[in-house]
Design a protein that fits this description.
Elements (H helix, E strand, L loop, with lengths): L1 H6 L8 E4 L3 E6 L12 E6 L4 H16 L11 E3 L6 E5 L6 H6 L2 H9 L11 H20 L4 E2 L8 E3 L5 E3 L6 E2 L1 E5 L2 E7 L12 H6 L1 E3 H17 L5
Helix pairs in contact: 5-7
């Protein structure tokens, strides 16, 4: 934890590049305990202490996600499991999020400036958007084909990141969980019962709201909404 505090200048606001389902995201150029990467690091830190139960759950999630490896899945590079401030470390995607590149708001410009853009980057063409979505869809399909299946639970335009070459990465897997297989009328259906609703408004399938169950179908619904907003430029409703 001390290493992350030093690298992010004590999680300074000037180093903040965004927020996700897990918490706030800060950039840093180097971490002594990890091999140097040209793009730098993104450090996600929980908004509050995780406590003993939360720490055990996070350890379980990290073990599951550490085994996941796909070219379009943002890799987990490091973990800090300090109860006072749990952190996850990923490569920094300097192309920003698909959401920021689509909507180009003043807040988006501020986040892109933190990543190195002096002015708003060019609008993504329809072909470029489809390529980014293809990359994210492949990563999500990969998670769904693992055993046990991993559900993302927070697919959205804000959780698809771009590198400097325009490649897409499915990110914010801090909410991902292994699903349970249950027999249904159509055979084996993998799902995860949940008492908390995760995901962004407009991207959440009604099944989750009604039945408190996430599945590959609800992940697919969120991906479909992401495709819709990406091609139309309109926000999710």
């Amino acid at each position: 934890l001390d290493e992350l505090i030093a690298a992010t200048d004590a999680f300074a606001e000037a180093r903040k590049v965004g927020e996700g389902g897990f918490g706030r995201v800060y950039r840093c150029d180097a971490l002594p305990s990890l091999p140097r990467v040209a793009c730098g690091f993104a450090v996600k830190t929980a908004l509050v202490g995780v406590g003993a139960q939360g720490l055990a759950e996070l350890q379980s999630e990290v073990r599951t996600l550490s085994a996941a490896c796909h070219p379009s899945l943002l890799p987990l590079l490091g973990v800090c499991l300090a109860p006072a401030r749990a952190c996850l470390v990923y490569p920094l995607c300097r192309g920003g999020s698909l959401e920021d590149r689509l909507y180009r708001t003043p807040a988006a410009l501020q986040r892109l400036r933190m990543l190195g853009f002096e002015t708003l980057p060019p609008t993504l063409s329809a072909a470029a958007r489809l390529c980014v979505l293809r990359d994210a869809a492949r990563a999500l399909h990969y998670l769904h084909t693992l055993s046990p299946m991993i559900l993302h639970r927070d697919v959205s335009a804000g959780n698809i990141l771009l590198d400097e070459r325009g490649n897409g990465y499915l990110a914010d897997v801090g909410l991902a969980r292994a699903a349970e297989a249950t027999a249904g009328s159509n055979g084996q259906v993998s799902h995860l019962s949940t008492q908390r609703i995760f995901g962004k408004p407009g991207y959440i399938d009604q099944i989750i709201l009604n039945d408190n169950q996430a599945s590959q179908l609800t992940d697919g619904f969120a991906l479909g909404i992401t495709l819709l907003v990406s091609l139309t430029g309109r926000g999710a409703v």
